Amino acid sequence: MSQDLDSDALMNPLLTEIIRTSIRRAITPPPLPNSDIKSRNLAQSKFLSLPAEIRYRIYSYSLVSVPPITVWSARFALTSQRRPVPRTLKWDRVAMAGDLRKLSLSLLQCSTSIAAEAAHVFYSENTFCFFGDHEYYPVITWLDKIGQQNRECLKTLEISVNQPERAWQLPDGSCLRRKTYRTTNGFATRHPQLAAPAGPGKEGEVDIINPAMETIISLLAGNSSARRVTLYLHLSVFDMPGVTLIEQEDMTLFSMDLPNLVEKWRTAYFSNGVCGSLEVIWIAESARKQYIQKRSLIEDVGWDILQEADVEVVRNRFYRANGDCLFQVTRSLLRRKPLTGPPIASDPDPYTDWQHRPEPLD
Prior knowledge:
Elements: H1 13-27, H2 34-48, H3 52-63, E1 69-78, E2 84-91, H4 93-97, H5 112-125, E3 127-132, H6 137-151, E4 156-161, E5 165-169, E6 175-177, E7 186-188, E8 204-208, H7 212-220, E9 228-235, H8 257-270, E10 277-286, H9 288-293, H10 295-300, E11 303-315, E12 325-336
Parallel strand pairs: 1-3, 3-4, 4-9, 9-10
Antiparallel strand pairs: 1-2, 5-6, 5-8, 6-7, 10-12, 11-12
Helix pairs in contact: 3-5, 6-7, 7-8
């Protein structure tokens, strides 16, 4: 999705209104009659006189959601031929509403002292999720809007990761992008932090990495050495970077370019100990049989397998009019092994369809 869409539409509307109201109050606090000021100050002074442990227990009961809070969730709408419609999103409003209305978010709009304490609990004790067909810009918009002080309270984020945009790499290393529902024809460039592999250039389809992911990691970097952040990256069902799990006619390979760059950025922004620590966990869902067959290959291409379990998941629940489709998969938690040198650009997809080769541009 394009970055120039209305930024206020890129997040949960209730959270948007909370942030807007907090900013307005910080800039122009509304005048109150003397009697109202006395009553408000009396109530606040009684609450603030409580021991900090009691206040934080109240904040936890009032502001912490057991299920994660879905800030953004949408997918591209489909035509009758099940092809994505450009720039047309179908929102998962049920997930975005969630249990948010059960929380006492008005605490975030109280006096400076109460709002600061409440915000610390709200942002540090909840998990915030961004799912669907985004290109990371809703995450950046939200992180920017909540401000640095609240960003430094964050401990857990979950973000869905789709296979990167693809382009056709020519032997000289230049790349041509063909028109899709996400992009237009034109030139593309592989990420500049990917070192060129040795040997002659190869032709075929390659992943074009969106630099927005580096922006997210940089925004998560804080000023406290004791801070620990966990970033869960949810891969689409059957996607496994570096490995093709299901062999079929139109299969493609999700390269290791994105995991390698994420590991590089994680090390660059959090290795000095001043910004705290960031753990990046990739969540993959695979057919059990294929996963077992290729488990050793998954480790060979650079993954540490932290955990695995058989689960039941819903596929394409946005697109099915006749209900959800449940099926069994193996869910694995993965961590990229530490890099031993600069990340090397992956070779073109070995399953490249030469019919997808775009015509040279004038």
